[in-house]
Amino acid sequence: MTQEQLTAFLANAKGNTSLQEQLKAAADVxxxxxxxxxxxxxxxxxxxxxxxxxLSEKDLEGAAGGRWETAQSTQCGFGC
Length: 80
Hints:
The protein is an all-alpha fold. The protein has helices at 2-14, 17-25, 29-38, 45-52, 57-64.
């Protein structure tokens, strides 16, 4: 399930500064999806977009210290 995967990924990112830096450097939501896959999670782009509306800004900032943008944005939303 995407929500469970995303929750687990965010929990992992909170304690992983290397992962946080990768997220901050991600160019877009596609790059974020690739990072989640590389980290061992199955979170497709549409799952990231759907989850955006369900997670609070505080949850997202806690994961990578940044902001969340939509898929149409040029920023990844994790502090890019």
